[in-house]
Amino acid sequence: MSDVPGALTPSDLRRQSTPGQLAVRGDTVVYTLRHAVDSTVDGSERIELWTVPFAGGEARALTHGPGRDSCPRIDPAGTRVAFLRSIGDAPAQIWLVDLPGSDARAVADFPRGVQDVAWSPDGASLIALAEDADSPRIIRSPGLPGDRSPTAIRLTTIDWRADGEPDGGLRLHPRHLHRVPVTGGVPVRLTSGAWSASRPRVDSSGRVYFLADLRADSDLDPTPQVHRIDPDGTGMRAMTALAGGVVRYHVTGQRLRVLGHTTAGRPDAEPARWLDVPIAATRNSVDTAEYDDILEPDSLWTGVLGDETDLHEWNLELDDCAELTTVSRDGSTVPVDAATGEVLAEGAGRGVICGALATDGGRRVAVLAMGRSAGSGAAPAGESSAGAVAGPAGWAPDLYALDGVAPRRLTSHGAWLNGHRQPDWQRREFPGPAGPIAAFIVEPPGGMRCRATILDLHGGPTGQWGVVPPVEAILLAGAGYRVVLPNIRGSIDRGPDWVAALGGAWGRADVADVLAVLDGLVEGSLADEDRIGVMGLSYGGFLVQYLLGVTNRFAAAVAENGVSNQVFAWAASDLGPSYNRSANLGDPLTADGARALWDASPLKNVAQIRTPLLLLQGGDDRTCPAADNEQLFVALRALHRDVEYVIYPEESHLMQATGRPDRRIDRHERVIAWFDTHLAVAGAR
Questions:
Q1: How much is the mean pLDDT over the chain?
Q2: CB contact at 8 A, 310 and 459
Q3: Which of 131, 623, 626, 628 is the most exposed place for a label (fewest CB within 10 A)?
Q4: Is the CB of residue 220 less than 8 Å from the CB of residue 576?
Q5: Nearest partner of 24 among 370, 320, 357, 404, judged by Cα
Q6: What is residue 624's three-state secondary structure?
Q7: What is the rounded CA–CA span in Å between residue 600 and residue 592?
Q8: CA-closest candidate to residue 251, choices 80, 391, 372, 127
Q9: 3-state class (DSSP) for residue 639
Q10: Within a 10 A sphere around the Cβ of 153, how many other Cβ atoms?
Q11: Residue 502 and residue 490: Cα distance in Å, rounded?
Q12: Which tens digit of pLDDT belongs to each residue from 130-174?
């Protein structure tokens, strides 16, 4: 499918191998490695545990088998690893493997599986986060067999959907904490209630911390706080009271390190604050005035990966098991030590994207994608970065030790990219209505003349394109296209003010910025006015759809898991009304609110859409559900427009990262074929 010899093609993704979640204890580093089972497109994929010495040495597999392993946790003595394993369609359970290696063994069997796990300080037990077997939402008639679907589902709150969850994205069962004896025995329940816990952590005295929102209306405005219980499950108390809730936390000594929002209302308009919270054993409330900022955000954006970069296809997704926070600026996402607040990997300049971080004392290990060679910094406007990294493998995530001026590579899993030609890669700025707009440009390898130019719009909108190109852009460049990745208003690359500038102006400020970039590309001879494509995922998918209704400057478009009807999405998305508040979009509960949402809906202008449009949709997407984008598809079909709608069954919102390999490859091939059909001109080189 590639028109450039040696360029990366979708079929090459069958060989993709990517490290993910991390744990470190002493000289032992344990991590997950995701890879296809073999070179055939059979839909199979495996996630195993691997290990590598912190000092350096050979990386090797620690677990084997047909399962998908996750959440590695090394015990306090450094002799065993607890982890979660799911086999086939069965839910994940806790397993143990001895170090340096042994046959893995199951520890407990929870009917609906385990979602997270943590060691007790003595290594005698594990704290398991597990779904309750029963749920007040599930109605079963007397005598109904347990393997039959329920009689009914009764809902009184709106938090029953969660994208990426089993059962088609439904979350009907509360999640609670249990103490599991390592040597066998019956697990002991520690928490209960209609609410759900998450992210269990244990301090040196054995007290258990977790995130939860215990308020009756938490479904309408989720603001989780850190809570603590004694080792036996008694004495529960709140440890934080942040008005906007807690995103991440880390327990260290007598203090909590908390990433969260101290103001309610619009967290999208401000970065999360990284706070130092005292643990007062005799106090029953927390005074937010006593919180101290560990980091001064300034022009940085503080958050967690997964919200910062659209690099899902590198499988550089959020590691929910890691103690990770990051600061972002100018396209980089740099890790921060959760215990100390120290910004790490600065020796790599700004050319870093962080996927996960694990620490043990002074030992720090991270999954990094290196955008440029160490110390090179960000490329000035118009300066190419081609050759700054030794081959495309320099972009693929790998493990690095952060124990010196520059990150020290521990693994070479990015070698699957060796032998492929690297696209040219540069950063430019274009004049915009509210200030310069940064954009990264990916060119076909070898300086060959490109077929056409494609704008790729990131999701979020509080995200950014960064110093590592997405796989999508590399594949399109290999097919002969120039790919432009703009960080328009709403992006985090220039800090809170640039984010807040989008505010509730979806369909206005963002459209103006995209058209300004388009003007700059045409004026700079980087785009042919008659052969420009556009594509985007999530918010980017929304923006693609909206653009097509207000301009005819694009010759072809691809919108993936977008939003066509904001009124519908307010109620149908798993993010619920709280997202509309955080994004300042409003609600349809008044005539003015409904009108504002409709004005920000691509469906409003569907009659003006003439651009050939490919719609891609995860069948089980709960964030931007299929029923939303089907409205645009049906309307365009009724208008006899050139439209195609492709649904990937069972896939969730970020199927680019989590989807079955055959579906991810099919997706890439369809995108390239769509642009080949509608943009490429024979012999245009």
A1: 84
A2: yes
A3: 626
A4: yes
A5: 357
A6: coil
A7: 13
A8: 127
A9: coil
A10: 13
A11: 5
A12: 999 988 888 889 988 877 888 999 999 998 888 878 777 788 899
What distance in Å separates the CA atoms of residue 391 and residue 185, rounded to the nearest whole number? 52
| pLDDT tier for residue 176 given thresholds of 50, 70 and 90 | very high
- Ordered alpha helix ranges (H), 446-602: 471-478, 496-500, 509-523, 539-550, 566-572, 576-582, 591-599
Buried b (16+ CB within 10 A) or exposed e, 208-243: bbbbbbeeeebbebebbbbbbbebebeebeebbbbe
Q: What are phi and psi of 493, to 5 degrees?
A: -65, -20
The DSSP code sequence of 96-154 is EEESS----EE----TT-EEEEEE-TTSSEEEEEEE-S--TTEE--TT--TTSPPSEE-
State which amino acid sits at residue 407.
Answer: P
341-392 pLDDT per residue, tens: 677 765 555 456 667 788 887 888 888 877 643 223 333 333 333 333 334 4
**Residues with Cβ within 8 Å of residue 459, at least 6 apart in sequence:** 310, 536, 537, 538, 539, 540, 541
β-pairing verdict for 246-252 and 208-212: unpaired
Structure tokens at 658: 């989590």
Radius of gyration of the chain (CA): 25
Alpha-carbon separation of residue 220 from 108, 143, 168, 216 (angstroms): 35, 35, 22, 9
Cα(first)–Cα(last) distance of the chain, in Å?
16
Please name the amino acid found at residue 571: A
DSSP code for 309 = B
The highest-confidence range among 164-178, 643-657, 670-684, by mean pLDDT, is 643-657
Structure tokens at 33: 């490695």
Q: Which of 165-174, 228-237, 280-289 has the lowest mean pLDDT?
A: 280-289
Question: Is residue 273 predicted with pLDDT exceeding 90?
Answer: no
Closest C-alpha among 29, 57, 15, 40 to residue 415 = 15
Tell me the β-bridge partners of 1.
Answer: none
CA distances from 417 to 13, 381, 406, 677 (A): 9, 28, 23, 28
Residue by residue, DSSP assigns 23-75 as: EEETTEEEEEEEEESSSS-SS-EEEEEEEEETT----EES--SSSEEEEEEE-
Task: Write the single-letter amino acid at 330.
Answer: D
From 624, 650, 474, select the one nearest 559 (Cα to Cα): 624
Token pair for residue 328?
């972002």
Measured from the Cβ of residue 559, the count of other Cβ atoms closer than 10 Å reads: 30
The pLDDT assigned to 339 comes to 62
Confidence category of residue 683, pLDDT binned at 50, 70, 90: very low
The pTM of this model reads 0.90
Q: What residues form DSSP beta bridges with 47?
A: 34, 68
Give the Cα separation of 350 and 362 in Å (integer): 23
Contacts of 185 (CB under 8 A, 6+ apart): none
* Residues 443, 444, 448, 449, CA torsion sign: negative
Q: DSSP assignment, residue 527? A: S
Take residue 236 and report the two structure tokens written for it. 């529960």
Taking the C-alpha atoms of residue 573 and residue 226, their distance in angstroms, rounded to an integer, is 26
